Amino acid sequence: MIDLVHVPADPAHPDAWTVEGTVHVSDAVDLAIHGSTDFAVDVPTTRATLSEPHRKVHRLVAVPRGSREPRTVVGRAIIGLPLVGNAHVAVVYVAVHPDWRRRGIGSTLWDAGLAIARDAGRRVVISDSSYAPEPPPGPDALESPTGSGRIPLHDDATRFALARGFTLEQVVRHSVLDLPVAESVLGPLRRDPGPDYRVHTMRDEYAAEWLDQLAVLKTRMSTDAPSAGLDLTEDPWDADRVVANAADMRSRGQGFLVAVVEHVPTRTLAAFSMVEYPLDKPAVVFQGDTLVLREHRGNGLGMLAKIAVLDALPGVRPAAERIHTWNAQENAHMLAINVALGFRQASVDAEWQRAL
Ligand SMILES: CC(C)(COP(=O)(O)OP(=O)(O)OC[C@H]1O[C@@H](n2cnc3c(N)ncnc32)[C@H](O)[C@@H]1OP(=O)(O)O)[C@@H](O)C(=O)NCCC(=O)NCCS
Fold it and tell me: Is 351 inside a domain boundary?
C-alpha cells in the first residue's frame, strides 16, 4: 500500500521533503537505464520547475503508506501543462524504482496524473521512455512509425505504455560527444561563411539587440524540428519570454552558451545553436536548440553555429567532458552534422501519445 503526496513549490511547506524524494527516485531509474546520473534534475531545478511562467508543473511522489522520508520514495509522476502554445497537451512522466515494479505503483501514479491532465482540460497526453542500447531489428523490436529507429518490445516501460493505451509516434536518438573535439575533426568541417554571415556568441545572458530575433528562432524550433505524429502546434516566443528563460536558467544554477549567425545585409539572425550546463556538474553539457531558418538552409550555417559553440566552450567550461544531445531518428540533416562532429549514439527515447 502506498500514499501519493503532492510536491509543494514552497520550501517551507511540511511536504517539502518530497522534492528531494523525486530527485532520489529519478536518479535510481536513470542509473538502471543509463548507468549514470548525468541527467539528474537537482533539488533547486526541481523546485524552480514548480513555478514557471509558461508551464504549470505538478509533481507527485509515491511512498510506502505512512512514510514521509525522501529516501523511501518509490515512484514519481511529473505532469507538465504548457500554458502558452500546446495548451491542449499534458506531458506526463511516470517512473517507479526498479525494486518496486509490477505492484501497481506506476498505474496509481498514472491515474492521478491523468486526472490532473483531464481537470486541466487537456485532450492529448505525451510521454517518453528511455532505452540503452537501441535494439537490433527483429521480433523483440518495436519499429518507429516514422521508419527510423526502434525500441525493445520486452521492456517494463514499453509494456506499460502499450498497456495504458499509448501509441509509439517517434524514436529519438540520444548521442554523446566526448570533449574536447580534436582539431583534426573540426578543421575539415570549418567553412568560411563569406561576408553575408557573421557569428556572435553570448554567455548566460542574451544581448538586448537580438531578443526579438531569438524569439523568432525559438518559435521556429517548435515547428521545424521533426515531431512525427505528435499532436504539437507552434509554441510562440516573444522577447519577454526569451529574457524570462535566461533568468530562469540562471536561477536554477544552469549556465548557457549560445552562438547566433547574423545575416549581415538584413541585420537579422539566420541561425543559432546553444548549450546549457548544470553549474554543479562541471563535466556535463547539454546541447540545447540548433536551428537554421528555412531561407538560409544549405549554406553550412548549422555546422558553423555548432563549431562556434565548441570553440567557445573550453573558455567557459574548461572541465567539460561530454555533451549530450537528442535528435529525432528521422532528422537526417541534424544527425549528419552531429555524426561528423563525433557524436556517438548512446540510447534511444520513445515518444508516446494517447488521446485523453
Ligand atoms: C513504466 C513504469 C513506470 C511502470 O511502473 P510499475 O509500477 O511497474 O507499473 P504497474 O505495476 O502499475 O504495471 C501496470 C501494467 O503495465 C504493464 N507492465 C509493466 N511492466 C511490465 C513488464 N515488465 N512486463 C509486462 N508488462 C508490464 C502490465 O500490463 C502491468 O499490469 P499488470 O501488472 O496487472 O500485468 C516503470 O517500469 C518505470 O519506472 N520504468 C522506467 C521509467 C519510464 O520509462 N517511464 C515512462 C513510461 S511511459
Answer: no
DSSP line for 263-330: ETTTTEEEEEEEEEEETT-TTEEEEEEEEE-GGGTTSSHHHHHHHHHHHHHHHH-TT--EEEEEEETT
Residue minimizing CA distance to atom 27 of ligand 1 = 159
Instruction: Choose which residue among 26, 29, 102 to substitute to test ligand 1 binding: the one with the highest number of ligand atoms within 8 A of its C-beta.
Output: 102
Same domain, 184 and 159: no
Distance, in Å, from the CA atom of 82 to the CA atom of 236, rounded to the nearest integer, reads: 11
- Which structural domain range is residue 194 located in? 180-320
Cα(71)–Cα(256) distance, integer angstroms: 31
Contact 154 CB / ligand 1 (< 6 Å): no
Of 131, 146, 172, the position where a domain reaches its end is 172
Q: How many domains are there within the chain?
A: 2
Q: How far is the CA of 42 from the centre of ligand 1 (A)?
A: 25
The verdict on 159 and 186 lying in the same domain is no
8 A C-beta contact, residue 232 and residue 169: no
| pLDDT tens sequence for the chain (356 residues) | 899 999 999 999 999 999 999 999 999 999 999 999 898 888 888 888 887 888 999 999 999 999 999 999 999 999 999 998 999 999 999 999 999 999 999 999 999 999 999 999 999 999 999 999 999 999 999 999 999 999 999 999 999 999 999 999 999 999 999 999 999 999 999 999 999 999 999 999 999 999 999 999 999 999 999 999 999 999 999 999 999 999 989 988 899 999 999 999 999 999 999 999 999 899 999 999 999 999 999 999 999 999 999 999 999 999 999 999 999 999 999 999 999 999 999 999 999 999 99
